[in-house]
Amino acid sequence: MVVEWEDAKVDTEFDGPLRDAPSEPIICRDIGWRIKKTQKVVVLAQSVSFDDETARIITVIPRKLVIKETELVEKEGKDAKKDGEGASQGSQQA
Length: 94
Fold this sequence. Notes:
The chain is an all-beta fold. Helix content is 0%, strand content 43%. It has no helices and six strands.
């Protein structure tokens, strides 16, 4: 899953007139296994083991900030890897 979302912007180097101060948030894109989705948050994990149902490196994104969610799907055809190598997360999302 790829999640595009707005985040706060911090500019530690700005030194100037108020009218020139940054006034737009930044757009972030995170990619990972969607392990939870509620009315409040989308939770992504960078690494998931389905054998023992564990995850590592978690990102919790408030749904209010989400601009777009894109599911990734396993590629099929001549360019697809054999025997499941390099499978993407689309076929096993929570």
